[in-house]
Amino acid sequence: MTTPIIQSLLDTDLYKLTMMQGVLHQFPWAEVEYEFRCRNLGIDFAPVIDGIDRELDHICSLRFTDEELDFLQSLRFIKRDFIEFLRLFQLKRDFITSEMEGDDYVLRIKGPWLHTILYEVPVLAIINELYFRNHHPDADLSEGLSRLQAKIDLVKSENSKGMALKFSDFGTRRRFSRQWHETIVKTLKEAIPDNFMGTSNVYFAWKYDLTPVGTMAHEWLMACQALGPRLVDSQKFALEHWAQEYRGDLGIALSDVAGFKAFLKDFDMYFAKLFDGCRHDSGDPIAWGEDLITHYQSLRIEAASKVGVFSDGLSFPRAIEIARHFKDRLITYFGIGTNLTNDVVGEPLQIVIKMTRCQDTPVAKLSDSPGKQMCDDQGYLDYMKRVFGKS
To answer: Which SUPFAM superfamilies match (predicted)?
Structure first.
């Protein structure tokens, strides 16, 4: 019998757990819907749908162990009542459906936000790994190891020039396989420990004594479009509630749910001083960083004391280019995902699971990158564009 892909509920990104804690304390009554999307054209998931169903059944049988909960409780921002909730937690199979509709693979998640939030990352990892097992059953990992070594050599070369790139692994969702992901984490920790700052994957952070990395994801701000008093104030509502939950911890604000210009309008003196920095995830990263620096300067805040986290489809050469550009003007950190964990064989899948509704009303992400926008209601999307002044 094949070993299940997901063997621990900690095999997920930290920001799912930090958001889940916020949901428990502030929005335990919220109801949401998510949908799966594949941005690649012509991808056939029919050969792996039975395997997906078996893996979904399995993750719904998992529970957090006492040892895993002890690790979570060691993180200063995780609260005791959340640990006790997780001690009882189990994913419910009734909240997720997976099927072929004609030639299209359709996966939907619907239920209480508190009880569905942990599906996204392991489900994407399952779909990705099964797809590559099916399409590349004899993949030679030696090519992946060669590419990984080239990345390590590039980082070491920059170290010798006085340019120490600081980055973390953000690649759980689209990894080639769980085994390959673990190989990468082990290799990076041993080879370049001063550059490799940690991983978003909580299980591997626990296993290899690394820093688990992450704050909030798009769904936190998207849900607040429905949970807050007015759409125009939804970003401020989301950031305020995050600050109430973490009181200065996890202080990186995600900046691209309504477009960066709209974000900066809301990111006033209060938030700019309260949060340690911002995360870039769409649009041109150089332009984004320059606009962020200008914004801090307009508020008479020293931009060089603030953090810019870059995480949009990065390669190592691109991350180095960005780090050089902002040297001594902005503290730069990088979250590198697919280029780390799925640079093995073939074209990586661009798959996502995004929230589409909260409280039975549409929510949306107005990305600054073409193709990353997501909403199933054109009328709501047009309304949101008008509210936030995005053409």
So the answer is: Nicotinate/Quinolinate PRTase C-terminal domain-like, Nicotinate/Quinolinate PRTase N-terminal domain-like
